[in-house]
Amino acid sequence: MEGNPNNEIPNTKMKNALLNYTLSLADNASVMSHRLGEWCGHGPVLEQDIALTNISLDDIGQARSLYQYAAEQLNNMPTTEKTNLFSDMMLNAKIAAGENLDEDDLAYLRDAWDYRSLLLVEQPNKDWAYTIARSFYYDAFMQLFYKGLQNSKDDRLKGIAEKSLKEVTYHLRWSSEWIIRLGDGTDESHQKIQTAINDLWMYTGEMFKMTDTDKAMAVAGIGVDLAGLHKDWLNNIKNIFTQATLQLPTDIWMQDGGKEGHHSEHLGYILADMQFLQRTYPGLDW
Amino acid sequence: MTSFEQHFEDKINNEVNIEPRDWMPDDYRKTNIRQISQHAHSEIVGMLPEGNWITRAPSLRRKAILLAKVQDEAGHGLYLYSAAETLGITRDEMIEQLHTGKAKYSSIFNYPTTSWADMGAIGWLVDGAAIMNQVALCRTSYGPYARAMVRICKEESFHQRQGFEILLSLVRGNATQKKMAQDALNRWWWPSLMMFGPNDDNSPHSAQSLHWRIKRFSNDELRQKFVDAATEQAKVLGLAIPDPALKWNEERGHYDFGEIDWEEFWNVVKGNGPCNKERLDTRRKAWEDGEWVREAAMAYVEKRKNRSQKAA
């Protein structure tokens, strides 16, 4: 570690970085669980319907712990520091009124431009192949990420990482097995999963891209050096693709922006669905 | 009566479970297959009306509970399909029967879930009505079915509580939320009473099923039990049951209640409910869309088998 980051970065900036970091992890987990939850009742076979729901439930659990932590951070900030953090009118009214925020305020009262999730997780389910490919890329990343986050100097993130690593290790085993099964199954499944991994490849680069927030957190020993995970991630992916008789997609332009609030068209519809009750009947307990 | 038949009757009369390898009359086997598969299909189709609100659940906690609940239903479907398989039918055959319309499922799932309060009403009333049936089925004569029901009942009582709790939150909320809860009760009350099936004198399979102890109580007995319990619970919620004839009968020690609209009941059974077509189409689509996935999984298993044989 070079120098003492807390002296170099102003305190407010640091607090905002931690908040953004926590929110970005929470948003990933929430959007992913939302997408997987869309499958509930529509899976190709009952056992897989149950497996998908399990994973979706794990992700919701992670999202809740992370949003709760983010809400605590916000509640500990002086009002002046948080008046301009978000763009949502309902959320800002609560902040201005000095109300304490909770997990649901953060999930349900931020519009897409305030969401910090990866472009990958908001991509539509389309079919089983796309769903598996999306999960596989994400799980393979999250497994390495949570491993790294276990060493966080932030106790809360460290605790969440320890619990989540166990879950994501199972998720990765599940999605890896499906990649292999589809790749080495029938000609049709091989072609479908190859297309899906190719099409989603352009969203994988963003996982390793260090935003200012990522850099600040990594330097502070709170976050993970994302760029440093890429080599292991690629090796793990290659290993599974080889077993699955699949080709690693060729290098193409990588899309990014989700982590800074620049999303695809899909996130808006997810949030319209998800936030409908909270927005139509505001301020109520459910 | 053959000695096989005598032995079977003795077991039934002595409350000894019938097990898969035991001799049983053909009609006993068929009745159990019909009932257990119908029950399994109800769990699976029943995932759809509630699944309809997973992405719109109003909080992360509610979303997680609803997901877990719908997942339980998938699990119940699995146990029940497995129980039916012990009678000599495969899951695929049963699913085929569902998709062709040969096998039925509970008509209640042919009603739409149009508001969040419906998640409460389904848990409270639909699962509540199902529990009345299912508790009785824990002592049904066919062993695998009875054992599946014991597991299922434990989870169903959690489902009913979560439904009641959703409604409790709504009635403690503002006027709109309370209106939402009342509206859900208005729509789900009568279909829930219909879940117990036709009146006893009009129920084609009842007598034989009672004799074989597949059924333990008649449709009307269970319906009465349900009305008595739900009426008290509605008071706790402060909601009005949409039945002007509902009235405590001191003499009987039960609530009297109005006549069910049997025309609506038979109409929905025949396929004319608001969502019959949609529900079946959705199930068929999920199955057809999943065909290449199931084929791939089977092909992969075959390939591995061949490879390990070659290696050996």
Notable characteristics:
heterodimer, A: 286 residues, globular, B: 312 residues
Walk me through this protein's architecture.
By secondary structure, chain A is an all-alpha fold. Chain A has one domain (12-280): Ferritin, core subunit, four-helix bundle (Ferritin, Up-down Bundle), CATH 1.20.1260. Chain A has 14 helices and no strands. Chain B has 312 residues and is mainly α. Chain B has a two-stranded antiparallel ribbon. In chain B, strand 1 and strand 2 (254-256) form a beta hairpin. The mean pLDDT of chain B is 95. Chains A and B meet through helix 2, helix 3, helix 6, helix 9 and helix 10 of A and helix 3, helix 4, helix 7, helix 12 and helix 13 of B.
Largest interface: A-B, 50 and 49 residues
For the sheet with most strands of chain B, the description reads: 2 strands, antiparallel
The average pLDDT score of chain B comes to 95
Q: Please state the oligomeric state of the protein chains shown.
A: heterodimer
Residue runs with pLDDT of under 50 for 5 or more positions of chain A: 1-9
Report the count of strand segments of chain A: 0
Using the alpha-carbon principal axes, give the shape of chain A: globular
The count of DSSP E runs of length 2 or more, i.e. the number of strands of chain B, is 2
Residue-averaged pLDDT of chain A: 95
Share of β-strand residues of chain B? under 5%
Helix content of chain B: 55-70%
Indicate the CATH topology of chain A. Ferritin
Provide the structure class of chain B. Answer: mainly alpha
What is the CATH domain class of chain A? Mainly Alpha
Structural class of chain A: mainly alpha
**Order of neighbouring strands in the sheet with most strands of chain B:** 1-2
The ordered string of helix (H) and strand (E) elements of chain A is: HHHHHHHHHHHHHH
Low-confidence stretches of chain B: none
Order of helices and strands of chain B: HHHHHHHHHHEEHHH
What's the tally of helices of chain A? 14
